[in-house]
Structure formats: structure tokens, C-alpha cells
Specification:
This protein is an alpha/beta fold. The protein is 27% helix and 23% strand. It contains 8 helices and 15 strands. A 5-stranded parallel sheet has the order 3-2-1-4-15. It has a 5-stranded parallel sheet with strand order 6-13-7-8-9. Helix 1 packs parallel to helix 8. The chain starts with 26 loop residues before the first strand and ends with a helix.
Length: 288
């Protein structure tokens, strides 16, 4: 049991109701303003530390900052706004539009460094992907730039991110096909409530899943898949890639050596779910 919002949930026997004030005030620098980085910054400020939060974009929130555009992700949008509001509430120095480098961080003279750089999407090696005339986008860019999606859409990758992106685009009026190699859409998601909602939503929108299907080739305006030992060509004006993420771990490694207390949290360490990132941000700082 756990909660992305309240780290104390399920941990009442050993997690204090309020973070205790630190005995020694430190300067804590947090690199990355996604949910994990914001939670770490908030907790550090609550403990009385001096906090500097560095974010390369012009807004805090990471991947979830665009979800206000999706009517099925209202709770995530509320959570993002809550974290943004908490950052404003406490005396946290926020550096937006700032690309963190080891040189920049070193000049800040941190006593502790929290690395919350997140993850980057994987681009699969598929024949014809680089030469197709269709618009090619990563799933995480769809919410930021939905206006770039044109015509009929094929989503390659039917995990939770892929199918939710497909539903969002279908809700925007696109005809969407979602291609998934396994025998079930979002197979890793076992929550019965989530799955029942997914089945209901798919009946309401123009989003067609293809399971046990493999992408063979991408042509100028189509995607060729193999399903049941048969080839099928699906028209695609826009192709969305959703085959997973890889941690920005090597980028984070460049910051080691600046200060002894240096920690990776969230997807930067290992790609997982939202609650794991926010809880890591809390529990790592609570010990500093």
C-alpha cells in the first residue's frame, strides 16, 4: 500500500506526521522540477534547509504538467498544481529555464544534491521510421503539442502511456490505432478499477487496439504490422512512439563528486511510477 500524495499513508508506525526540523541547516540543490524534485524541495524546505530547485523548462511539473488537457487525468493535474503551489508557499529558490551543469551546481556550493532528471523516451529501430513522410512524435510530446497531430494516428506501443495517449487523441477527434506486441493492452497494469474504466472508455472513442501485433515496416503514410501471421497495412498521417523510457542516469552521473551527499531519485534512477518518485523525494530528504 502506498500513496503518491501522502508518504505517511501505510507507514504510520515510523513516518512522523510532520517532517522534523533539521538539527543542522544545509543548502540542498535539487536538479529537476518534476514531481519527485518538487517533493524533495518541499520536504527540505519544511525541515528548514536552504533549497535551490533547478528546472530546464519554463514551468515546474515534468511530464504531468500538460495533463490539464486530458479530461481523464484530472487528478494528476490537481496533484501537479498542488505541488507547484507548495513550492511557491515555501522559501525555495526556483531557477526556471536553466540547464543544470556540474559547473553551475558547483558554484552554488551545495551540502547535498538531489538528482531528479527523469527519463527520456526510447526511439525504436524500425525500417522506414527515419524516412517516412508521416509526422513522427513521442507520446510525451503529444500533450504539449496536440496541434501537431494530424489526420489518422498510429500509436506504436500499447502500454499504459500508449493507450492513454491514444484515447486522448481519439477524444480530440482523431481515428487512432494502437499497436501492442503482447496479448493485452497495458498488460503491466493490474488494477481492476483502471482496467474496467479502460474497457468502458475504449467503447466510447474511435481508438482501435491491435494486440499480439508486431510493427514490420513504416512506409510514407502507413504502418505495416504482422498479426496472426498476416500482414496488415494501417494508414498513418501521424505516428506516435510509446515504447518506453530510459533513465537519464548517465547524465546524472556527471554531478557526482561535487558533494558527498548526492542521490538519484525517481525515473532518473529507475523508470517507475509517480508515487515511487515522490516518495523517494520525501524519504531521501527526511534523512538529511
Amino acid at each position: 500500500m502506498g500513496c503518491a500524495i501522502n508518504p505517511r499513508y501505510g507507514n504510520y508506525s515510523w513516518v512522523e506526521k510532520e517532517p522534523k526540523k533539521a538539527k543542522i541547516k544545509k543548502h540542498i540543490v535539487v536538479v529537476g522540477g518534476g514531481p519527485g524534485g518538487m517533493r524533495a524541495s518541499i520536504t527540505a524546505a519544511q525541515r528548514g534547509h536552504q533549497v535551490t530547485l533547478i528546472e530546464k523548462e519554463d514551468t515546474l511539473g515534468g511530464q504531468i504538467r500538460h495533463f490539464q488537457k486530458d479530461r481523464f487525468k484530472v487528478d494528476l493535474d490537481i496533484f501537479c498544481k498542488f505541488l507547484q503551489g507548495q513550492v511557491e508557499k515555501y522559501p525555495i529558490q526556483v531557477l526556471l529555464n536553466t540547464k543544470a551543469t556540474p559547473e553551475l551546481v558547483e558554484k552554488l556550493h551545495p551540502d547535498a544534491l538531489i538528482l531528479a532528471l527523469g527519463a527520456e523516451p526510447i526511439t525504436p529501430k524500425i525500417k522506414g521510421l527515419e524516412s517516412t513522410q508521416a509526422k513522427v512524435m513521442q507520446a510525451i510530446d503529444v500533450y504539449a503539442h496536440p496541434e501537431q497531430v494530424k489526420g489518422k494516428v498510429v500509436v506504436i506501443g500499447g502500454g499504459a502511456t500508449g493507450i492513454e495517449t491514444g484515447i486522448f487523441l481519439a477524444d480530440e477527434g482523431h481515428h487512432v490505432s494502437v499497436i501492442e506486441m503482447s496479448d493485452q493492452i497495458a498488460k503491466q497494469e493490474q488494477d481492476i478499477n483502471w482496467r474496467s474504466q479502460l474497457d468502458w472508455i475504449l467503447k466510447q472513442v474511435d481508438c482501435q487496439p491491435y494486440t499480439s501485433a508486431k510493427v514490420i515496416e513504416i512506409k510514407d503514410n502507413s504502418v505495416v504490422i504482422e498479426q496472426d501471421n498476416k500482414l496488415k497495412e494501417i494508414h498513418a498521417d501521424t505516428i506516435i512512439l510509446s515504447v518506453g523510457f530510459k533513465p537519464r542516469s548517465q547524465e546524472a552521473d556527471l554531478f557526482y563528486g561535487i558533494t558527498y551527499h548526492t542521490f538519484k531519485i525517481g525515473d532518473c534512477y529507475k523508470v517507475r511510477k509517480l508515487g515511487q518518485a515522490t516518495n523517494e523525494g520525501y524519504f531521501r530528504v527526511i534523512k538529511l
